[in-house]
Amino acid sequence: MNDRPGRFDWNHVRAFLATAEEGSLSAAARVLGLTQPTLGRQVAALEDDLGLLLFERIGRSLQLTGAGRELLAHVRAMGEAANRVALAAAGQSQSIEGKVRITASEGMSAYVLPAALKRLREAAPRLEIDVVAADDIRDLMRREADIAIRHVRPEQPDLVARLVREAEAHFYAARSYLDARGRPQSLADLARHDFVGFGDNERMLDYLRPLGMPLSTANFRIGSENGIVAWELARQGFGIAPMWDELAARDPGMERILPELPPIVFPIWLATHRELHTSRRIRLVFDLLADYLGQAT
């Protein structure tokens, strides 16, 4: 046992925190980018430094001991403090070099961002851009991304959010599908058509039914949580799907159905961490994206 238990390595503490949150050494090692043996040695070293048993093995998983649970609350506070230090340091950076991570939905990442990133490359050719195709706003809180593009307003107090515009969507289908199945002339006609699902079909139905669409889960026989895959299924003639008008207009093979229907209006929000917003490179990317997304394409 270490005779100076008050002194320990932050890397060991971080290894303990990741293991406690992930539930296994292998999962924690992946999160931290370490090998499992290295992580295991770091956790063991912390136990030795503190003179405490922090985990016990139950089957294939690790569970916190009483001492481990008591320590975890303090370690989480340390981790949050470390993140705040990193955010403050990043926010003071005045360089327009380095990496900026942008997170957006799959469809936004694939179909909208590339044109904006071409403008960004012209403005700051030495920046490195990493696009994270995901919908989880926690990406920002965990520093897994610097800027997020979302369709709901982020509520976390540490985030700076800007509404850049409200966009419109309608329902579309491939011309080949409509030629084969007929073009619906009324909402009632939709009951005999196939729809492409974008993830949770029940949730989608909860939104569509108040619009007067007589649909059930039987209308959703194919779909994908991945927006790119779902839209491609619609393009290949599997059924009707909602899409942002500006994106659908780029594909001449897609036809709007029931064009008299009111549009589906959805917001486009940009968000970043309050500390990062003072960084010159983050501010540059944030403002360029706000300008690009705020304009009709």
From TrEMBL:
Q: Name the PANTHER family for this protein.
A: HTH-TYPE TRANSCRIPTIONAL REGULATOR, TRANSCRIPTIONAL REGULATORY PROTEIN
Q: Which family does it belong to?
A: Belongs to the LysR transcriptional regulatory family.
Instruction: Report the residue ranges that make up the HTH lysR-type domain in this protein.
Output: 8-65
| Protein source organism | Defluviimonas salinarum
Keyword list (alphabetical) reads: DNA-binding, Transcription, Transcription regulation
SUPFAM superfamilies from the UniProt entry: Periplasmic binding protein-like II, Winged helix' DNA-binding domain
The protein in question is named LysR family transcriptional regulator
Q: Which domain of life is it from?
A: Bacteria
